[in-house]
Design goal:
It is built from 22 helices and 43 strands. By secondary structure, it is α+β, with helices and mostly antiparallel strands. The strands form nine sheets. An eight-stranded mixed sheet has the order 5-4-9-2-1-12-15-14, covered by helices on one side. A six-stranded mixed sheet has the order 22-21-20-23-24-25. A six-stranded antiparallel sheet has the order 33-34-43-40-36-37, with no helix packed on it. Strand 17 (235-241) and strand 18 (244-252) form a beta hairpin. Helix 7 (492-504) packs antiparallel against helix 8 (512-522), helix 11 (564-588) packs across helix 22 and helix 19 packs antiparallel against helix 20 (777-789). The radius of gyration is 32 Å and the shape is globular. The two termini are 48 Å apart. 46% of the residues are buried.
């Protein structure tokens, strides 16, 4: 296991502080960022030096932090951490030292960035990746930190400063550098800054109309707080980039705030998912108290949102008394994932209040379109652990606004935003401008920020503003002539892109491509774009990522590689066709059904080999089984009478070249699953409880196991056993709330939803997994099978065929053959509804089977093995891939997720024992037990295919578990 999480501790202490200190100052306290646990480092990482450079121009600031770390340990370390940024902050870039020089990161599509990082990391080379996970959360991964060496990292942030009492407020935490062996800080401002609360001598010098503030030693205080005079008149900044000129206008907007007209009918959408436990619920209720007291008489329709929306409940507030509704909210159990849909807007509702963190992570994740005239206010108390931008865009798209706060001390400001209204931007017209977008239509802090492109001179904005009961227009000149003195800035282009992306967040899925284009062009880390640093130019060429320099050489090398993609595609198809040809040859053979010959019986061996000739025939030649692995299977925790049984089925389809009158695939066969139960204390407690007490016991145990995927899986199983299916699905959905974008956990969730016969819920889960891990064929296979289970057959065929078209990493040998068998079974079952003309004809042949078992698992770099023992006592496994009667097992997966497949065309009568073996793992980050998914089928590929799916866990190497058995009559 690779040591990890040590090097970037100070980097992220800084980032966490940059993301929290400004809001902490409003509250009157400074929140210390959490320190990271260092795993695998005998001696802590040392912060060798810290250098901070910043610039303040009007209400905009750019801060660069360069840190040098020393690893005193004798082993290489890896750094990884998730961190939040506050509203108004944006990552402008980062750089990593390569061969002693800082190399800037470049934008890359998010899924591609992670794929490239992990592929290069496996080679032990130097990559770094910065990506956005969920909400305003970010993750940086750096590898390697050399043993007894140093690593230099530079991070850059830009932000729009808050305006307070006629001054801009700039906050910079400095406690992170207290242990730095050397430190320097230099800030430049066009206006003279005023210091607040730093107990140290600070140099402030003036030169050429600019002020320079410098610190040359380690700071004594916790942070640097500056106030800079803010202009009272509109001001514009310009920037030339890529042949275009961008502008940013700051428009002070004075005006009185007054109470807004509150509705008489309200829809209250209450996010009751598990993440709701992290919200400031007491202050949410306090804010609602002010709202209902101001509204007086109002009808309320309450809808709780979790993994599925609950039925609406009606309440009446009279004279501001909402005690009955408050009691109902107080009784809320916060559990499960968050699907914002599943409900319909009600006619007569004037205003909806959405109380949520905006982290929609389940189902289709689409908020319903409100009816004409209905407006939406989003109330968010979750701070950085929320999708601030998404909630803001959603509310503004429906005529309302976001009201965000994090502490009780901010409640007055939140109530003012909810109950009152001030000047509001209604429309913007421009002369000599285009693609104009506002940061917000609300003049919070008495300021509007508007960005766009300049097309001509002179340029002017005409703002239409509602102020109280009247509408007025404001003219804002941007650039009067060629000699105009609108100050140049490095920020307008990026802020224009950021404002544009924010506006699209109301329907991020619909605008995915546009968001990705802006993110990649302007280097903005979004849900669709990451930033990456690679070590070698050859890697930039190999993965088609434009480097920050040496572009001429990059394009030359890229041209030399042109055409390789198409050649690779053709070669991949040829290779898959060859694999499938071997499967067809195996399927066409007649295999003996007696007892296998002894090793000394050469004549029988030759007959069993069938006169093998050629490469395909030689692969089918039978060899007696070597000494099979022996391990004690897990004992049965329950009597066989409790097992899940699939009754015998008689197939009516016909097998290619089958003899007339022969039995159909799977006839007379049944599946008996071995019950699998965890033996943890909480699992025993749950099983011993009555059905009406299981959920309450789960809630009691939850805090002790909140980060354990196994816990939620076990509880869901028990709830199903007790007949509490809806609660089981709710508990299971908690996996979507864990670890933001962990594809391993999401895979387990998808498998369990498939097992629970909920393919409509599994499809969006596997779609997310494909987006997270497009370089893994299992992502396409899982999604294709979910599509098929959800009757989306064209999408299923497309996803499975993609596996044949791509050239996969060597960790996934033979997955294409398995996927093509599944594709053909789908095509054969729906011949009239599918167009298979796109599929290579060499791969279009259905091969029905009597028995089939497929094993897959959730942990990367792990080796699980499928064992099937037939009535002859012959075990088919990785060391003995072909049995005497024709049982065949696929390639051994030793470093991926599987699948491994056992197939048998004609099954002789008797019992076939199915086992799973945990051979070993090489995971860099151990996540606990490996979850196995097994799919057992009779009559696979026939008209009446029957199947059972089971999910179980293995934790220890060499552990073997009895999965179940086929019984063939």
């Amino acid at each position: 296991m690779k040591p990890s999480f040590a090097v970037v501790r100070s980097v992220f202490c800084l980032l966490l502080a940059l993301g929290t200190v400004a809001s902490a100052q409003i509250r009157g306290d400074i929140t210390a960022p959490p320190l990271l646990e260092v795993r695998g480092a005998e001696t802590p990482i040392v912060l060798e030096s810290a250098r901070v450079d910043g610039e303040i121009v009007g209400g905009l600031a750019r801060t660069s932090v360069e840190l040098v770390f020393r690893n005193p340990n004798r082993r290489v370390l890896e750094g990884q951490l998730q961190f939040p940024l506050r509203d108004g902050q944006q990552i402008a870039g980062f750089a990593l030292d390569i061969d002693g020089k800082l190399r800037a990161a470049v934008p890359v599509p998010k899924d591609k960035g992670r794929q490239v990082f992990e592929a290069i990391e496996r080679r032990g080379v130097d990559p770094a990746l910065l990506e956005k996970t969920a909400g305003n959360q970010f993750k940086l991964r750096v590898y390697p930190i050399p043993a007894q060496g140093t690593r230099r990292v530079r991070l850059e942030l830009v932000e729009s400063l808050a305006r307070e009492d006629g001054e801009w407020r700039y906050e910079l935490p400095l406690a992170f550098a207290a242990q730095a062996r050397s430190f320097s800080l230099e800030l430049v401002s066009a206006q003279k800054p005023r210091m607040v609360g730093l107990n140290q001598q600070v140099e402030i010098a003036s030169q050429a109309g600019r002020y320079r503030l410098a610190l040359r030693s380690r700071p004594l205080g916790d942070g640097l707080s500056l106030r800079v005079p803010a202009a009272t008149a509109p001001r514009a900044y310009t920037q030339d980039r890529d042949g275009e000129r961008f502008f940013l206008a700051e428009v002070p907007l004075a005006g009185a705030r007054q109470p807004r007209t509150l509705p008489k009918s309200v829809g209250l959408l209450w996010d009751s998912s598990a993440s709701g436990r992290k919200r400031e619920r007491a202050s949410e209720l306090a804010l609602l108290d002010r709202y209902f007291r101001a509204a007086g008489e109002v009808r309320v329709s309450l809808i709780r949102l979790r993994d599925r929306a609950e039925k609406a409940q009606a309440f009446v507030v009279t004279g501001g008394d909402w005690s009955a509704l408050k009691r109902e909210l107080d009784s809320t159990v916060y559990d499960g994932a968050t699907d914002p849909g599943g409900w319909q807007p009600q006619a007569g509702i004037e205003e909806y209040l959405l109380v949520s963190d905006g982290l929609f992570n389940y189902g289709q994740r689409r908020f319903p379109a409100l009816l004409a005239g209905q407006r939406l206010y989003a109330l968010n108390s979750a701070g950085a652990a929320s999708d601030h931008d998404g909630l803001r865009a959603l509310a503004q798209a429906h005529g309302g606004r976001l009201v965000a706060w994090q502490r009780a001390g901010e409640l007055d400001r939140a109530a003012d935003a909810l109950l009152n209204e001030g000047p509001q931007l209604l429309a913007v017209d421009g002369l000599g401008t285009s693609e104009v977008v506002a940061d917000s239509p609300f003049a919070d802090g008495g300021l509007l920020r508007i960005a766009g492109k300049l097309n001509d001179r002179p340029a002017k904005l005409s703002l239409k503003v509602r102020d109280g009961g009247r509408v007025r227009e404001i003219a804002v000149p941007i650039e009067a002539d060629a000699d105009a003195d609108a100050p140049a800035s490095a920020l307008p282009a990026a802020l224009w892109a950021q404002y544009s992306i924010r506006a699209m967040q109301a329907d991020a899925e619909l605008n995915r491509a546009a968001i990705a284009r802006l993110g990649q062009r302007f280097g903005i880390v979004t849900a669709e774009t990451s930033m990456i640093v690679l070590d070698d130019l050859a890697d930039y060429v190999r993965y088609d990522i434009a480097p920050p320099d040496r572009l001429d050489e990059f394009h030359r090398l890229k041209a030399e590689r042109s055409g390789e993609s198409e050649r690779s595609r053709r070669q991949s198809l040829d290779r898959v066709a060859a694999l499938y040809a071997q499967r067809i040859e195996w399927w066409q053979r007649e295999w003996p059904k007696g007892m296998p010959p002894q090793l000394a019986d050469e004549a029988k061996l030759r007959r069993a080999a069938g006169g093998a000739q050629g490469e395909v025939q030689r692969s089918l030649a039978y060899q007696p089984a070597p000494a099979a692995p022996v391990a004690a299977s897990a004992p049965m925790p329950a009597a066989e009478a409790d097992a899940t049984v699939l009754e015998s089925v008689v197939m009516t389809g016909s097998r290619d070249q089958a003899k007339e009158g022969s039995a159909q695939p799977g006839a007379g066969a049944r599946i008996v699953l071995q019950p699998w139960q965890p033996d943890s204390p909480y699992a025993r407690r749950l099983r011993q409880a009555g059905a009406d007490r299981v959920y309450a016991i789960y809630l009691d145990e939850r805090d002790s196991h909140a980060t354990s995927t196994a816990f939620y899986l076990d509880v869901a199983d028990v709830l199903v056993e007790k007949g509490q299916r809806d609660l089981a699905l709710r508990v299971l959905s908690n996996l979507a709330e864990m670890d933001l974008e962990n594809r391993h956990i999401l895979r387990v969730l998808g498998y369990r939803l498939m097992q629970a016969e909920q393919p409509a819920l599994a499809v969006p889960v596997f779609e997310r997994v494909r987006g997270l891990a497009e370089e893994e064929p299992q992502s396409f296979r899982d999604l294709g099978l979910a599509y098929a289970a959800n009757a989306q057959y064209p999408q299923a065929v497309e996803a499975l065929y993609e596996i044949a078209l791509r050239d996969w990493d060597g960790r996934f040998p033979g997955v294409e053959e398995i996927a093509m068998a599944e594709l053909n079974a789908i095509v054969a079952a729906h011949p009239r509804g599918l167009d298979s003309s796109r599929i290579d004809k060499r791969l279009l042949r259905n091969l029905p089977l009597d028995l089939r078992v497929v094993l897959s698992w959730d942990s990367d770099n792990s080796d699980m093995d499928l064992w099937v023992t037939d009535p002859n006592g012959e075990k088919c496994y990785y060391g003995h891939k072909l049995t005497y009667q024709g049982g065949r097992i696929s390639n051994d997966f030793t470093g991926g997720y599987g699948p491994e497949e056992f197939i048998l065309r004609d099954a002789k009568p008797g019992k076939y024992k199915v086992e799973a073996n945990f051979y070993g793992d090489r995971q860099q980050l151990v996540t606990g037990a490996t979850t196995l998914h097994l799919w057992l089928s009779t009559g696979f590929g026939g008209a009446q295919q029957r199947e059972q799916k089971v999910t179980l866990r293995l934790k220890d190497r060499s552990e073997v578990v009895m999965v179940g058995e086929f019984e063939v009559k």
